[in-house]
Amino acid sequence: MQSKSPHKTATMFRLIIASLLVVSSYGRVVRKPMLDGRIVGGEEVGLREIPWQVSLQSFGDHVCGGFILDEKNVITAAHCCDAVSTFIVVAGEHDLFEPSGHEVEVDVTRMVKHEAYDEFKFTNDICLLWLATSLSFSDYIANATMPSAGDDFEDGANMTVSGWGSTQEGGAISDVLLKVNVAIVNDTTCDQAYADFGGIEENAHICAGTMPEGGADSCQVRYLASV
């Protein structure tokens, strides 16, 4: 499901739709991402605050974010794997232009998109990356804690989105890793908000965002944001 008009009506929620993923050559990194994501109303992440966050880079360009599943695997969005043919994973990344000394670059040997990924319905937007070498965990590099199958996410509960997205529409991406807290929205409200786009597929998406008067959110121009 493409976000052709994310602000279609004055009453529409600004929503994130995530496919159940709740959760280097620095001189050559460019400021314009290939997929134009945004982190609006966010704040800078502390150096050791989100150690599972990685930057996926192609030929020095930051393309997408991802998270560490374990020492040999990273998860990102399937639409990111559609964008380029190869990635370098940069773990421990914080500032795209100023190395901290904690970054580790690892080649990706294999990319596998979810077999039921649908780029139009935006379901199962998940891609698993195999790393060429195992990551060594530290205070700056660690794996994420995954929810269990069947876990429910309470309406109104907070979730955190992080990344290097631009802070305003049409703007440059952030130099530093940002985060934003958004509230989970129930399926009924989300489905109604996106009725003109065919609604959402129940149990296949998680929606979160803020009311139209503004506030913090994360979105993507090409696709509604995958977390």
From TrEMBL:
UniProt keywords (A-Z) are:
Disulfide bond, Hydrolase, Protease, Serine protease, Signal
Q: Name the Pfam families for this protein.
A: Trypsin (PF00089)
What GO terms in the biological process aspect are recorded for it? Answer: proteolysis
Q: Where is the Peptidase S1 domain?
A: 39-220
**Gene Ontology molecular-function annotations:** serine-type endopeptidase activity
Matching entries from CDD domains are given as: Tryp_SPc (cd00190)
Q: Return the InterPro entries for the record.
A: Peptidase_S1_PA, Peptidase_S1_PA_chymotrypsin, Trypsin_dom, TRYPSIN_HIS
Q: Which domain of life is it from?
A: Eukaryota
Q: Which residues form the signal peptide?
A: 1-27
- Protein's UniProt name: Peptidase S1 domain-containing protein
